[in-house]
Design brief:
Length: about 600
């Protein structure tokens, strides 16, 4: 006997206009492949007889549903059956809303679809709308079942007319069905057995077609993706290794492989695989929740996406086109900040542009809407403040799907379709406007530099430990002052009790913190002063923002824990360097390399 657990699984959704025979197709398929529990068919038939109701194959689904849902809640009518090739889960699409919600949030993912059309009634609105949904969700394995052929005398012309008409529509939405099959679900024609009544049809029957559907590439064969869930530090014996932990979503990684983390672009080699009390492992594959250590000490944070160098990299961007399903009680509107959760990262996101909207309750399209209402499916452009790492859903279902949180509730879910052209930084426009309006002083920067005998500079001390940052910043201020410089160190506590007293210093206000420091630096450097502040764990993105905000003056970063990527404006020290050593070198750099000196 074949061990079913080892068999491949495929989820198929059955869609189509009301009463066109979706449930009957499923009931018949289960009955004809002997997939029903022993005696089920007979008992339902007897029940119908007793109650003088005509038997319907669709009743089998209701009977199964009751049975399956005893004690547990199931979200939709799902049935299971198997062929020699694989196991199937058939989803009787439980209304558009549930179906869409489940599909976009990943609760259930259909890899294939059968769209049922009544041969007598012909193509109806929902035949088209469901076709559109399948295209929107990117389902490629599609079969069209032209049902109730018994009602049109199994007529070939009638069948071909429907094929022609529907093909015109599907072409417009870029769907190429694998095949059209004439069936009669009620009589079991061309479902699991070839029809004697439609000998003119030479194509495959329904059961053959689903077995011929190709599975999406399995997760292990895709490029390596592991969102960083956590970073654990070894604390004993001066061990400075860190374990990067997470769940491998796709692909695999071995000891010795080179990895790159996005969006920080930091690189290192896998040194060990840590499997927490289990036997030693040499590789991690899709589905495993474990960790690894790296050969070099690089500083990365939770939320980054680990990829393997040499494989297709993930995308990094802050602007992307998505299909979004909205279920929030408040509509999604422009100019409001939401939280986007993708993989293990959370970022602020805003609605940039609505491209089109379908109302999921009746699947009608609305144009010119200015907000996304509950149960709308919107194709739109979203923009995050910081760049995030992701894949397009067409490349990777797991890393291309996201959820949107409004206040504390999950209000939307969606899939990323396209990464849009990199735009300028969010602050570029603001800075241009500011500089344009700024009523410049009559005293030039050169005159000021001349008077103070120094070049104004914005110096940021960064590292992993706020106390250490503060000590170095304080000392540096003192050294520069004693050398005759006009210098000022602004501490975080000064900021928080004053200029930033309105800020709730959580992750999501950090961008605002950076913006205010940048603006403040612009004013202080304009005065002609050397401005020092400390910002823990400054990353590339933040440095870039500060640089833009502080223009035309320069910024210098002193990284006392070696956490940064190499960049021209960063002076990096490994964390074992003493305070004195760091200060000596910094002093030399600043004074001897002529960074803050100004000579006439
Ligand atoms: P909803 O779930 O209500 O959207 O309907 P459905 O698409 O699941 O249709 P269902 O399977 O319940 O069938 C609707 C009606 O069509 C039932 O009365 C079926 O008996 C009938 N029907 C289904 N398939 C056939 C067929 O091949 N021939 C004929 N003559 N009737 C059929
Ligand atoms: Mg039904």
């Amino acid at each position: 006997m074949v061990n079913l657990n080892e068999k491949e699984r495929m989820n198929i959704v059955i869609v189509g206009h009301v009463d066109h025979g979706k449930s009957t197709v499923i009931g018949r398929l289960l009955a004809d492949t002997n997939s029903l529990p022993e005696g089920k068919l007979e008992s339902v038939k007897k029940y119908c007889e007793r109650n003088s109701r005509p038997f319907e194959y669709a009743f089998l689904l209701d009977a199964l549903k009751e049975e399956q849902s005893q004690g547990i809640t199931i979200d939709s009518a799902r049935c299971f059956f198997k062929t020699n090739k694989r196991q199937y889960v058939i989803i009787d699409a439980p209304g558009h809303i549930e179906f869409l919600k489940n599909m976009v949030t990943g609760a259930s993912r259909a890899e294939a679809a059968a769209l049922v059309i009544d041969a007598k009634e012909g193509i109806k609105e929902n035949s088209k709308r469901h076709g559109y949904l399948l295209s929107m969700l990117g389902i490629k394995n599609i079969v069209i079942l032209v049902n109730k052929m018994d009602l049109v005398d199994y007529n070939k012309e009638k069948f071909l007319n429907i094929v022609d008409e529907f093909n015109v529509f599907l072409k417009n939405i870029n769907i190429i069905p694998k095949v059209y099959i004439p069936i009669s679900a009620i009589n079991g024609e061309n479902i699991a057995f070839k029809s004697e009544k439609m000998r003119w049809y030479e194509g495959p029957i329904f059961l053959e077609v689903i077995d011929s559907f190709e599975k999406e590439e399995s997760d292990e064969n895709k490029p390596f993706r592991m969102p960083v869930q956590d970073i654990y530090k070894f604390t004993e014996d001066n061990d400075d290794r860190r374990i990067i932990a997470g769940t491998v979503l796709t692909g695999e990684i071995k000891i010795g492989d080179d990895v790159i983390f996005y969006p920080s672009f930091k690189k290192a080699k896998i040194k060990t695989i840590e499997s927490f009390n289990e036997e030693k492992q040499f590789k991690l594959t899709a589905g495993m929740s474990k960790g690894f250590t790296l050969d070099t000490q690089i500083y990365i944070k939770r939320g980054e996406l680990a990829c393997k160098i040499g494989e297709k990299p993930s995308l990094v961007n802050h602007s992307f086109k998505v299909n979004l399903f909205w279920m929030g009680k408040n509509p999604m509107i422009y100019n409001k900040k939401y939280k986007l959760k993708i993989n293990t990262t959370k970022e602020i996101v805003m609605l940039e542009k609505i491209l089109n909207i379908i109302d999921a309750s009746d699947l009608t399209t609305e144009s010119n809407k200015q907000q996304i209402d509950k149960f709308d499916v919107a194709q739109c452009v979203l923009k995050t403040i910081r760049p995030i790492a992701f894949d397009l859903t067409s490349d990777n279902q797991k890393t291309g799907r996201f959820v949107i949180v409004d206040e504390y509730d999950i209000a939307g879910g969606g899939i990323i379709l396209e990464s849009l052209e990199q735009e300028k930084s969010i602050y570029d426009e603001q800075v241009n406007k500011r500089e344009f309006i700024w009523n410049k002083s009559q005293i030039s920067a050169i005159e000021r530099a001349n008077r103070f005998k120094q070049k104004p500079k914005f110096i940021v001390i960064t590292g992993t430990n706020n106390e250490k940052i503060d000590i170095i910043a304080r000392e540096l201020e003192k050294i520069l002052f004693s050398k005759g410089k006009n210098v000022y160190y602004l501490t975080l506590s000064q900021l928080l009790s004053g200029l930033e007293s309105d800020i709730n210093f959580s992750n999501f206000d950090r961008d605002e913190h950076i913006r205010r420091i940048g603006e403040l630096a612009r004013i202080i450097t304009d005065i002609g002063i050397i401005f020092i502040t400390g910002i823990s764990e400054l990353d590339d993105f933040e440095l870039e923002q500060l640089k833009i905000l502080n223009k035309p003056y320069e910024i210098i970063v002193i990284d006392i824990d070696g956490i940064s990527n190499k960049r021209e404006e960063i002076y990096s020290f490994s964390s074992d360097k003493s305070k004195e050593e760091i200060l000596k070198i910094v002093e030399n750099i600043l004074l001897e390399k002529n960074i803050v000196e100004y000579y006439i």
